[in-house]
Design goal:
With 425 residues, the chain is mainly α. It is built from 13 helices and 10 strands. It has 2 domains: 211 residues, Beta Complex (Beta-clip-like); 159 residues.
Length: 425
Amino acid sequence: MADNTVPDIPSPDAKEPDTTVPDNTVSDNTVPDNPSPATSDLLGSPTPSEQEHLSRHEDPFVLEDAGPKGAGYFATRDIAVGERVLVERCSLIQINYQNIYDRSNNLIGEYLKLSLEDRQKILDLHSESDPVQRMRHRAAFARSGPLTEDELEECVTVRLVHAANCFEVKKARSKPDGSLGHSRNGVFIKASRFNHSCDPNCWYSTTALPGYFICTPCRPIKAGEELTITYLPNHAMKQARHRTIERGWKFVCECNKCEGVDSEYDAQLEEAYALRYPNEPLPRPTSISKSTGERLVDERRLLRRVLLLEGLGWPRELFFAYLNAGNFYTQLYNETVEGDLQSALRHAERSIFFLDSAITIGIQCWPPNEIIMEDTKDEANGTRDNIRAMQRALNIPVLPQGSAQTSSAVTAVSIQIAERSSGPL
């Protein structure tokens, strides 16, 4: 990519980067309810496995030149699906106060708590270099007291680095009085160097364990292969993805998905399947959402991966294939829920089927309380809540707690070749 940045929050709920620019008017004198709480107060407690990773882990990747994309992380050895490649504590957290001056002052207050070494690492990350944009962002510090020219430039750089590289680390939650609390965004120094792909080979979360970036491959990664994440909801339409990327990160994505072609991973799955079942044709799933054009291509690719992996009996890769398919139908739900509840309900039912399938197989793959599983369970619970809300709105029987209604078309696609799997997953 043209720079080494990351999105506000992870897929599938990623939002656009923080490109808020202050105007030159004076806002009200809003005072934040907690101007500069300690960063540690906003972080979750690492599980034993995450703590072990933090204390003993050696990164299985190195930062190298990635051609037109700038620098990127490349594997120094083969990395297995589900292996932790990075567990990183957030370095710079901002509380997202509504008032831009409060946000900026809070951010600089947290920045000044860092060591000089970590401050320099923050300043070395990508940020907007356009002089016009930098001048406009100076207004955010109009109430920060007298600053020298160098101090003001440093403040602007910190703000722009945060805008280009932040993830959501804590979601906004309702308070006991009914008001909505503030969300938090944060910068991870190492994670900011991952490059983007709309068909990434790594899964990550920054909210499952608040304040920590946890990353694992969702498919096998060979030594020398680049590690990629997605900066945005990667199942949105190509035009929408490119518009968001261009506005937030100033590059054009040329990944296999954007180019409309299968990845090397798809070819590897088909080759493995052909070797396992030499007398069987490769599965060619049809659309179960009546998609057309670009969406039809994406849907078939995702479902083909599910069918191939069900036949191959590779549980960890199948877990992520189910999860990816669930995220695809969640995206369709998000795009239809405002105007077509019937279609949105069908998409949500398909999503919950694949999310539940991921959870079922994940129990066999991951230990209890595994972050990947907990994150998927949270997503499934949210989808169930959406299904029940739509059922009430449509005056149809409400989905019982802890169950899911799935269309026969979804089930037929999923079990089409399940019996060919070599033994239990």
